[in-house]
Each structure stands twice: as C-alpha cells, then as structure tokens.
UniProtKB/TrEMBL annotation:
Residue span, Pyruvate carboxyltransferase domain: 5-272
Naturally occurring in which organism (per UniProt): Aliiruegeria haliotis
Similarity remark: Belongs to the HMG-CoA lyase family.
Coiled coil location: none
GO terms for biological process, alphabetical: ketone body biosynthetic process; L-leucine catabolic process
Keywords: Lyase, Metal-binding
Protein name per its UniProtKB record: Hydroxymethylglutaryl-CoA lyase
Length: 289
C-alpha cells in the first residue's frame, strides 16, 4: 500500500476570498457541505479578518453557523488578531490559523505591519487559543518570492517558520503565494526550513500561477512533507498579491498523488463534484491582469 498524503482543502477560504463576485452564504455552505462528504480531515472554511480588508469573507460567521459538520472533520478559520480569534471561538471553529510573511513588502500589504509587528500581534492569539484548547496552524507567505520585494532568500522563511513553531503552532504551511516558484527554488527553501522545523510539522501551500505546483509538491515529498493545501476547482489567489492565481486544484493534486501510488482517503467522485460546483461559482468575467 502506498504512503498516505493529506490534502488540506482551503478552497472555501483561500479560493473564495479572491472572487470579485459577492458569493451568497448559501453557495458557500453548499460547497463546504459537498466537501464535507469527500473525506477531508481538515477544511478551511472561514476567515475572521477585517471585512474592510477582505469583504468576500465578511459572512464567515454565518457560513460556520449554517454548514452541516461531518464528524471527524476539523473546520478551520483564519485569524489575524485577537478580534479574529474571538469571532472564531464564537463560531465554534475547530482550529485556527495565523499568518505571517517571509518578506516585509507582503507583510505591509497584507497585514499593514512589519514582520516583527505581526509576530507581536499573533503571539497572544496563539497563547490564548492554546489555553482554550484550540489547535493553531501557521502560514508563512512568500517563501520564495514576494510580489513587492522580489526573490526571497531561504533564510527568511526558515527564520519565520522557526519562530512560528516556537510560538506553538502544530504545523507550518509554507506558501508560494505568487505561484511561480521553480522546483529548484523550493528545494533550496526546504533545505533551509527543514533544519529549523521537521518535515512532519510542515505543509506545502502552492499556488499554481506558472503551472509548476505539482512539480513543487513532488520536491516537497522528497523532503518528507506529507500535507498539501489545495483548492477544489483551482479557486483563488490573494487579494494582496497582485498577479497571483489560484491554489493548485485539489482534483489535480489528487489525480497526481494516485498516479504516484499514494493514498489519500478522498472520494475522487465527490471531489470532482465539489470542483464542478466551485468552478460554477467563479466570477464569469474575471478582471484581466
Ligand atoms: P488595520 O487596518 O491595520 O487595523 O488592519 P485595525 O485594527 O485598525 O482594523 C481596521 C478595521 O477593521 C477596524 O474597524 C477594526 O475594528 C476592524 P473600524 O474601527 O475602522 O470600524 N477589524 C476587524 N473586524 C473584524 N474582524 C477582525 C478585525 N480586525 C480588525 N479580526 C488587519 C489590520 C490585520 C486587521 C488587516 O490588515 C487584515 O484583516 N488583513 C487580512 C488580509 C487578508 O485576509 N489577506 C488574505 C489572507 S492571507 C493569504 O491569503 C495567504 C495564505 O493563503 C498563504 C499564502 O498563500 O501565502 C494564508
Ligand atoms: Mg494562499
């Protein structure tokens, strides 16, 4: 039997946060309810960030109240600060995620503060979440390239990942936010990061702008990483990363993993159903780049 690899579904959050169309809560709930039948262990369904910054996620409270939760599935929510944590607790999120950047330019654009300030902001969030028994995941954005600062040296994500792990996050997800990383850059980045954080506590989060996400997943597998974030239908991008396209499509990663003899516990037919639903939700007339 092949090795087990987990796909962490992020479509309802990373995917939908970037759609230009205001997606009704009912459509989001329908997507999540379909995903809940597919066999995922973790699904990121909400983002309790400022609605002034990401209006697409403003209805996250209502979404979490209306989904039908499947037993054994952890429903995750993004939280940038203590207010976000408060909202995530009120919505009964099963786990939260904090997020920082390996580069200063993206930190300023996405969080309106420096990398150092972002750690000061999330430290009490992680502390309180752990105190109340909520698992915390940590994202590092721009692990190889930043839309504002250009190339990012491997030492930067290594340093930031180590700090997140020291705060007490249970897993660090390494984000190629722009989706243009080359496998060689991912290799160099992972050479540095795995010195600080063991592969069993890492995940790969590849956007697929340049169509190399699966190649980058292959490299990450060589390092022992066994968790990959993906979005059904290849939804998404980041509103504060100009030029970034969607996350690598869940169905594409699943098909490739199966072709490599890996196991995922996912039901490919339901994943395909969710992917079709996700594609039908996309803005029919995306703004040209
Ligand atoms: P700010 O403007 O510097 O700070 O934003 P603020 O504290 O003055 O907040 C502004 C307003 O938002 C205030 O309202 C706050 O109360 C309110 P006002 O007083 O003006 O009426 N506010 C909130 N409301 C609801 N929930 C909250 C909340 N916090 C503040 N939690 C802040 C700083 C961090 C809030 C802002 O920059 C923000 O929300 N940024 C998030 C941007 C974002 O969500 N980006 C996308 C997610 S990250 C991503 O996609 C990358 C990832 O996928 C990995 C990868 O691919 O790299 C994870
Ligand atoms: Mg992302």
């Amino acid at each position: 039997m092949g090795e087990h690899v987990e796909i962490f579904e992020v479509g309802p959050r990373d995917g939908l946060q970037n759609e230009a169309r205001a997606i009704p809560v009912a459509e989001k709930v329908a997507l999540i309810d379909t995903l809940s039948r597919a066999g995922f262990r973790r699904i990121e369904v909400a983002s309790f960030v400022s609605p002034k910054w990401v209006p697409q996620m403003a209805g996250s409270d209502e979404v979490m109240a209306r989904i039908r939760r499947a037993p054994g599935v952890s429903y995750a929510a993004l939280t940038p600060n203590l207010k976000g944590l408060e909202r995530a607790r009120a919505a009964a999120a099963d786990e939260i995620a904090v997020f920082v950047s390996a580069s200063e330019g993206f930190s300023q654009a996405n969080l309106n503060c420096s990398v150092e300030e972002s750690f000061a902001r999330i430290a009490p969030v992680v502390d309180l979440a752990r105190e109340v028994g909520l698992p915390v995941r940590g994202y590092v954005s721009c692990v190889t390239e930043c839309p504002f600062d250009g190339a990012v040296a491997p030492a930067a994500p290594a340093r930031v990942a180590a700090r997140l792990a020291a705060l007490g996050v249970y897993e660090v997800s390494l984000g190629d936010t722009l989706g243009r990383a080359r496998p060689e850059q991912v290799r160099q980045m992972l050479d540095a990061v795995t010195v600080e954080v063991p592969a069993r506590h890492l995940a790969g989060h590849f956007h697929d702008t340049a169509g190399r996400a699966v190649d980058n997943i292959a490299v990450s597998l060589d390092f022992g990483i066994r968790v990959f974030d993906a979005a059904v239908g290849g939804l998404g991008g980041c509103p504060y990363a100009p030029g970034a396209q969607g996350n690598v499509a869940t169905e594409k990663v699943l098909a490739w993993l199966l072709s490599q003899g890996m196991q995922t516990d996912l039901d490919a037919a339901i994943v395909a159903e969710a992917a079709a639903l996700a594609r039908s939700m996309r803005d029919p007339s995306p703004v040209p780049e």
